[in-house]
Amino acid sequence: MKLPHFSVNRPVTTVMIFIAVVLLGFISLTNLSQELFPPISYPQLTVVTPYENAAPEEIETLITKAIEEAVGTVSGSRKINSISKEGLSLVTVEFGWDQDMDFAALGVREKLDLIKERLPRDADEPVVMKFNPFEMPVMTLSVTGKRHPASLRELCKRIIKNELEKIDGVASAGISGGLEREISIEIDRGRLEASQTSIVDVVKAIQNANLNYPAGTVEESFYEYLIRTLGEFTSVNQINDVVVAFQEDEESDDPAQRAQLMDRESKAGGEGRLIFLKDIARINDTFKERTSYSRYNGVENISIAIQKQAQANTIKVADEVKRVLERVTEELPRDIKVDIIYDQSIFIKDAIKGVRDAAIQGGVLAFLILLFFLRNWRSATIVTFSIPISIMAAFSLMYFGKLSLNMMSLGGLAMGVGMLVDNAIVVIENIFRYRYDLKFSIKEAAIEGASEMTNAISASTLTTIAVFLPMIFIIGIAGQIFKPLAFTVTFSLVASLFVALTLIPLLASRSKKRKKRVSLAAASEEVIKEDEEGAVLGKSPFIMKAEEVYGKVLERFLRRKYLG
Fold it and tell me: Nearest-CA neighbor of 306 among 175, 412, 395?
């Protein structure tokens, strides 16, 4: 059964189908991931391995070469580059553009697990990182206040950062700017040598003293208590009292010095004395050395860059961040000011607004043009009505096709809006011709007029699709960027074709013709027909003149076909 025949004879089923399409389109629109750019999967993985205080030669020998040998056997790897510098090893593995980077990353991690035992114990574990040139923060905040940069940074870290990272869809909130507290220990070389202690023993003593350690459990009748030893430093004075060594004392002839030594021995619990960190070093409560500055409008500030999770909706995340900021700002001191200096959701909202405005403008223009040529407001309204339904169907196809709303997909949708009404115009004009020129009944005109145009509009739609759809086969970054545009144009055109062959004939067949009224000069005057709203249907002198000129031009071309 042909689509026009089915839609006209099964109106309830057809209407229910399109109601379902519209509802599914609204649901898909709310669930579509909204981003500024399409997700880019660059075929490159970087293995980062920190090894503090190691020279580049040691990094290359102990870490870089081992990692290169391991990841070089991963399936699909084409090229390996490495950089060994002080305290850091970077190994970059490049793959083909058709490689699934999730599986490639999994393969690299499996190879790294096999060589972890060969790496130095003091080196950190290798981290596998993907590369995305468009991975930008969804929002950037500026925090200013009349207080010390270190205090301002600590306030942002303790209150604002913690609250923002609790939001659903937020992956991280990175802080930059200000000053970070640092406890530096400056060891006096002379005192260290005099105490006969090595620098390694000092480092181990500090590490072992700054620990919280579990100490078992205590069981009672109905309860079991977990016990742990609290040993982490809470003040600088506690660092001063760290014992780094024990030294036996020699006998002295001086009574005062002998008494002092006996006092130390009693504290040490034996013959000798304890060497504290304060005896050989000076502890400074200071700040880390600055490598960058953050300013906003010439004022030093703290910047907070918010990254969203991969599949999160950018607009929803941005709106939730703004809602949480309003609550957090009320709890902050009055001198603290939080400004939003970058919001990615604004660009996405503007793009969506542009598509919406283009659809409205296109619909209004199509309505006016059809009303001018057909002189039938009902036919013009039917064609205009097909635009939002086709867009809703395109949103549904985008959701099931796992596409996101971004600059490229919305651009493709805006491009498709101008072509959505083409099929509907052709179908409604042919139905109009069958109805009033060939004197078919309303139902027959809708079926025959739409059926006659099926092959024509299908071929026209497929030729347009044939221009855009091959863009999905482009490889590289260009292919990943333009693929959403090709799909959205294709989806919107397919939806418009389906609407033109089903909904347009159905709506055109619903009008009821009133009784004909013939003028007194019926033999020589034009027959005037009137539809159910009483609108007069006829051809304007301009249209009649245009048809006359077109007929003459067409006749001349047909007579001289060889010139074409």
Answer: 175
Q: Return the C-alpha torsion angle 366, 368, 373, 376, nearest 10.
A: 100
Q: Please, what is the angle between helix 344-374 and helix 377-400, to 10°? A: 150
157 — alpha (psi -120 to 50), left (phi > 0) or beta? alpha
Which residues, in sequence order, are CB contacts of 129 under 8 Å at separation 6+? Answer: 45, 46, 47, 48
Q: Residue 51's closest CA among 130, 144, 121, 148?
A: 121
Confidence of residue 516 (pLDDT cuts 50, 70, 90): very low
Statement: residue 522 has pLDDT above 50: no
DSSP for 52-81? TT--HHHHIIIIIHHHHHHHTTSTTEEEEE
- Distance, CA of 176 to CA of 29 (rounded, Å): 35
Using CA atoms, how far residue 208 sits from 65, 125, 192, 334, 445, in Å, is 33, 22, 19, 42, 91
Radius of gyration of the chain (CA): 39
Which residues pair with residue 5 across a beta bridge? none
For residue 336, give Cα distances in angstroms to 65, 342, 548.
Answer: 50, 19, 77
pLDDT per residue over 16-50, tens digit each?
Answer: 999 999 999 999 988 888 777 787 778 889 999 99
Residues 6+ apart with CB under 8 A from 280: 187, 188, 191, 192, 195, 197, 202, 244
* Contact of 184 with 153, CB cutoff 8 Å: no
**Residue 193 pLDDT exceeds 80:** yes
- Alpha-carbon torsion angle 194, 197, 199, 201, nearest 10: -160
d(CA 173, CA 307): 6
pLDDT for position 538: 47
Q: Tell me if 420 sits within 8 A of 492, measured CB to CB.
A: yes
- Alpha-carbon span 145 to 156, nearest angstrom: 11
| 503 contacts 424 by C-beta, under 8 angstroms | no
